[in-house]
Specification:
The chain has 15 helices and 10 strands. Strand 6, helix 6 and strand 7 form a beta-alpha-beta unit. The longest helix is centred in the last third of the chain and has 21 residues. By secondary structure, it is α/β, with parallel strands linked by helices. The protein folds into 2 domains: 223 residues, D-Maltodextrin-Binding Protein, domain 2 (3-Layer(aba) Sandwich), CATH 3.40.190; 104 residues, Periplasmic binding protein-like II (D-Maltodextrin-Binding Protein, domain 2), CATH 3.40.190. It has a 5-stranded mixed β-sheet, sandwiched between helices. Strands 8-5-9 form a 3-stranded antiparallel β-sheet. The relative contact order is 0.16.
């Protein structure tokens, strides 16, 4: 049958269908002869290409040292902004807390990555047999301070003699004890060490003369408190602050760890590099997009107020930036200082083996990054605290 005939038959078939569809609205037409049968064989249809599917993302977990707060803003930002997803990772962030030890969680395969202070958490756990290795040192300096009210006249470590000195202890006292020894004071004889709560209530009540504080947390708690003598919030000029970075007894704090045996499995070093690259991007984002980063932290369930989170991120940024060798790269001199102090005060019994930390994965992560990875021009902004950190 030629193409003209086929076309004629097709038109006839369409007409028959149209007449049938309109039957309920028009008089019954006269019987029509049946339309010629259509050919039963249809020309073969070309095969449709399979729709591409997105590659399955690798699921990994990171456990934090504490509850959601700006201390961990870079990890939350990396997840919220899709940086982990862009690296092909599906990252679950596990909040920490008083009953969660990240080193134990990672060592027992409860997470692929963990965030913890270097000496008393990661290195001590490794010395105790845990298969842990530091793969990136996020904080480049210590955030620990000693804080007192101006009227106490405590401006240097030597002034601690005969005073009630607050410390959280539990391995958090090493920087303090090293500073006391450096100043010629015996922690057991020349001062009275008072077990301090994880807040500043004892300082505010006068139960200690000087108290331990993190610059991004407890120090802010004092500045968020109303001075009963003035009716206004305490001001920095009403306090004396001693910074262990300036004293010379600072120890490294938040770093990223993983299990050496996990890293040795095929493909996992690449996963670690991708995790670090996205994490570094998260911290760079929080440095350059302060307000949005604070909001990300607030959206992730922090129990603390907005002004406290703003203060905290500002101070956390200052612990990371500048990173002279690039974010995440270990400062070898400060690592050695950390180890020496940790040995002196019983946190470690001996020098860690050379495999306790590695920089190759962080360096590979940095190679794949664009933008400012050192933050050499970083400067803190001014943050106004509100009562109670709200």
């Amino acid at each position: 049958m030629d193409r003209v005939a086929k076309k004629t038959l097709a038109i006839a078939g369409v007409a028959a269908m149209l007449l049938s569809a309109c039957a309920v609205q028009a008089p019954t037409p006269a019987p029509q002869p049946p339309a010629p049968a259509q050919p039963t064989e249809q020309p073969p249809q070309p095969a449709q290409p399979a729709q591409p599917t997105a590659p399955e993302r690798k699921a990994v977990r990171v456990v934090l040292q504490w509850v959601p707060q700006s201390q961990f803003a870079g990890y939350y930002a990396a997840k919220d902004k899709g940086f982990y997803a862009e690296e092909g990772l599906d990252v679950t962030i596990i909040p920490g807390g008083p009953d969660i030890a990240p080193a134990q969680v990672v060592a027992s395969d409860g997470a692929e990555f963990g965030v913890a202070w270097l000496p008393g958490r990661m290195l001590a756990a490794r010395e105790g047999g845990a298969d842990l290795v530091n793969i990136a040192q996020i904080f480049q300096r210590s955030g620990t301070l000693m804080v007192s009210f101006k009227e106490k006249g405590i401006t240097k470590i030597e002034d601690f003699k005969g005073k009630n000195v607050g410390s959280w202890l539990l391995g958090n006292e090493a920087e303090l004890f090293a500073a006391l020894r450096k100043a010629g004071l015996d922690p057991e004889k020349d001062v009275t060490i008072v077990k301090q709560n994880f807040d500043m209530s004892q300082l505010l009540k006068g139960e200690v003369d000087v108290a331990q504080a993190m610059i991004y947390n407890e120090y802010a708690q004092v500045l968020e408190t109303r001075n009963p003598a003035t009716g206004e919030l305490y001001k920095p000029e009403e306090l004396n602050v001693i910074d262990f970075n300036e004293v010379g007894t600072a120890m490294l704090q938040d770093g990223v760890m993983a299990r050496a045996s996990w890293l040795a499995q095929p493909g996992n070093e690449d996963v670690a590099v991708r995790f670090l690259r996205a994490t570094f991007r998260g911290w760079m984002f929080c440095r350059d997009n302060f307000d949005e980063c604070v909001q990300i932290v607030l959206n992730n369930g922090t129990a603390l107020g907005e002004s406290h989170m703003r203060w905290q991120l500002n101070e956390i940024n200052a612990l990371i930036w500048p990173s002279p060798n690039g974010i995440g790269i270990m400062d070898e001199a400060l690592y050695k200082q950390t180890v020496e102090i940790a040995k002196t005060y019983g946190i470690l019994k001996k020098d860690p083996d050379p495999e306790a930390y590695r920089t190759d994965l962080a360096k590979r992560a940095l190679e794949g990054l664009s933008g400012d990875t050192k933050g050499l021009s970083f400067k803190k902004i001014t943050v106004e605290l509100k009562e109670g950190g709200n």
